[in-house]
Amino acid sequence: MTVRVLIVDDQMMVREGFSVLLNAQPDIEVVGEAEDGRRAVARTAELRPDVVLMDIRMPELNGLEATREIVAADADAKVLVLTTFDLDEYVYQALRAGASGFLLKDCSARQLADGIRVVAAGEALLAPTVTKRLITEFSRMGAPRPPAVERLSDLTERETEVLALVAQGLSNAEIAGHLVVADSTVKTHVSRILVKLGLRDRTQAAVFAYEAGVVTPGR
Description:
Layout: E1 3-8, H1 12-23, E2 28-34, H2 37-47, E3 51-54, H3 63-73, E4 79-83, H4 91-97, E5 101-104, H5 109-120, E6 125-126, H6 128-141, H7 146-151, H8 157-167, H9 172-179, H10 183-197, H11 202-211
Parallel strand pairs: 1-2, 1-3, 3-4, 4-5, 5-6
């Protein structure tokens, strides 16, 4: 199956460069480009790409607001945000807006292509350096948020354990190895967690876990 991608960036050279790199992949097709957030929202509705590759700092409508509008219009939309070190302050906001993952702009062509495949498959994607900054952001938040804590009662003890491991960035295979269970069992647990908590993907599950205090920075 070919993954259809929309590239959103206010720099033409960046868009063209990504387009060349991604179209060289046998299973990825760039179906369109957008030079600002407002255009990104319109093009996403028009083209229905599998993944929106989103820059953050843009004119008209920034990537955060564009992501929020895209996800609000289509709960199944998948947005992969490209960020740089000086933009990491926006990571938490974009996750809350519904982004499915993050990559750094200096990633390799292979990392970019693999990242798009991961997000298209419904998995969360957070670059390690971005994850560290994300944890720092949660440290500033202080105490867990009451609404999130209350919703934890809907989960079984094992589901809460799986949620904590998801928040730490472990894949299904890694969680299965840690708990000594089958991959399919972990997949079932993750699916039930998302349904019970009303979350759209593993990225939102990670955010919820930190907000509810299931995982704390440094743990």
